[in-house]
TrEMBL record:
Its cofactor is Zn(2+). GO terms for molecular function: fructose-bisphosphate aldolase activity; zinc ion binding. Zn(2+) 1 binds at residues 83, 180, 213. This is Fructose-bisphosphate aldolase.
């Protein structure tokens, strides 16, 4: 099966009350860990590439790694540009074989966001590619830009119909309290997503797929593994998994996870180095790291997203 768009995946996910996992990929072991888990569980997948990933691994390498995963697994896989910040970047990914792009102009004024999203949609749809857009700003770090909590803003439900109608986008990322990175909530406070906003958005956009960024749950076993093996990540806290499950049962069809993969990989490698100080073959420590990414993704698919068996 060749790469697919997310159109049919989202329709089924919306109807079925589950979500598709969108996992960020940066190297071969990450691609393999994610896709081996999805294959075992017959789960549909979105593999996403950020501007930073392209700068790190090179567009061509990433495309070919993802195509290898399609060949190896036979699964429906979407290759998605995460946080595209310009028309030119989106165009280059569309021309280069991506089946889905995000244009993230949510930090720009509303009218400008509509204008640039519209341009990307026109080019993408001409080429059979789908577009995710965004309204609202998440706190945290993305593409080296740090958005402070006080500069973040929830999505305004009263804007979504006009935005979707005028732009023609295929899915919409909204801000309901998630954020990028490993420090999502202040220690001692109760993490709580704004389900009232999600509810209001989906009332205004019946059947329309909603996307949640910043949805890592920051597993405490890996935070502990990092901290016990020379790392320093005090107070790393993520989105509680029961809230992600609830979002998946509502209009949220795509849940973005990157930080959890980084934590699983880093925790595992740190521990390996501590336990085996004489080893120096990268295969020795990348193998358990890949295995733990696979375990983590399997857990997300079955216990959080609910998309096992849906490929
Ligand atoms: O939103 C994301 C990628 O676009 C990833 O979010 P996390 O940092 O929570 O993994
Ligand atoms: O949302 C951001 C993703 O986690 C990608 O992060 P990155 O820009 O560091 O690759
Ligand atoms: Zn954004
Ligand atoms: Zn994101």
């Amino acid at each position: 099966m060749p790469l697919v768009t997310s159109k049919e995946m989202f329709e089924k996910a919306y109807q079925g009350g589950y979500a598709i996992g969108a996992f960020n990929v940066n190297n071969m072991e990450i691609v393999q860990g994610i896709t081996e888990a999805a294959k075992d569980l017959n789960a549909p997948l979105i593999l996403q590439v950020s501007k930073g990933a392209r700068a790190y691994a090179n567009h061509t390498y990433l495309i070919h790694l993802v195509q290898a995963a399609v060949e190896e697994t036979g699964l429906p896989i979407v290759l998605h540009l995460d946080h595209g910040d310009s028309y030119e970047l989106c165009k280059s990914c569309i021309d280069g074989g991506f089946t889905s792009v995000m244009i993230d102009a949510s930090s720009k004024p509303f009218a400008e966001n509509i204008e640039i999203t519209k341009q990307v949609v026109a080019y993408a749809h001409d080429h059979g590619v789908v577009v995710e857009a965004e309204l609202g700003t998440l706190a945290g770090v993305e593409d080296e830009v740090k958005v402070n909590a006080e500069d973040s803003s929830y999505t305004r439900p009263e804007e979504v119909e006009e935005f979707v109608t005028k732009t023609g986008c295929d899915s919409l990322a909204i801000a309901i309290g998630t954020s990028h990175g490993a420090y999502k909530f202040k220690p001692g406070t109760k993490p709580q997503l704004r389900f009232d906003i999600l509810e209001e958005v989906s009332k205004r956009l019946p059947g329309f797929p909603i996307v949640l960024h910043g949805s890592s749950s920051v597993p405490q076993e890996y935070v502990k593994m990092v901290n016990e093996n020379g790392g320093n990540m005090p107070g790393a806290i993520g989105v509680p998994e029961d809230q992600l499950r609830k979002a998946a049962s509502m209009a949220v069809c795509k849940i973005n996870i990157d930080s959890d993969l980084r934590l699983a990989m880093t925790g595992t490698i740190r521990k390996y180095f501590n336990d085996h100080p004489a080893d120096f073959d990268p295969r020795q420590y990348l193998k358990p790291a890949r295995e733990n990414i696979k375990k983590l993704v399997a857990h997300k698919i079955v216990d959080v997203l609910g998309c096992d068996g849906k490929a």
